[in-house]
Amino acid sequence: MLIIKIQNDGTGDVKVGNYRYQVMVNDTVIESGEIKKHKRKEGWRGLLLNLVDQSSKSELEALIFKDEKRMKNDG
């Protein structure tokens, strides 16, 4: 089962909040991170979109790093 946990970290103010998140498959954490300066007026849907956007960037950076490392080893 896929589980996405998002928890306010207690910092922030009336307009913005900061959160920690975990993405899990059953009991295994497959990703975790932080979302900083989420505009509360964007609501939970905006928070979830921020998580997805941040996760996509992390995956892209990991792929680029892996490709650069492979190219360095090949060359």
List keywords for this structure.
75 residues, alpha+beta, three-stranded antiparallel β-sheet, 1 helix, 3 strands, 43% helix, 44% strand, elongated
Tell me what you see in this structure.
There is one protein chain. With 75 residues, the chain is of the alpha+beta class. The chain has one domain (2-74). 43% of the residues lie in helices and 44% in strands. Strands 1-2-3 form a three-stranded antiparallel beta sheet, with helices on one face. The model has no long low-confidence stretch (mean pLDDT 87).
Question: What's the SSE blueprint?
Answer:
Layout: E1 2-12, E2 16-25, E3 28-39, H1 43-74
Antiparallel strand pairs: 1-2, 2-3
Overall domain count: 1
Question: Strands of the biggest beta sheet: in what spatial order?
Answer: 1-2-3
Q: State the assembly state of the protein chains.
A: single chain
What is the structural class? alpha+beta
Secondary-structure element order, N to C: EEEH
End-to-end separation in angstroms reads 42 Å
Low-confidence stretches at least 5 residues in length (pLDDT < 50)?
Answer: none
Count of helix runs: 1
Radius of gyration equals 16 Å
Q: Name the average pLDDT.
A: 87
Biggest sheet record: 3 strands, antiparallel
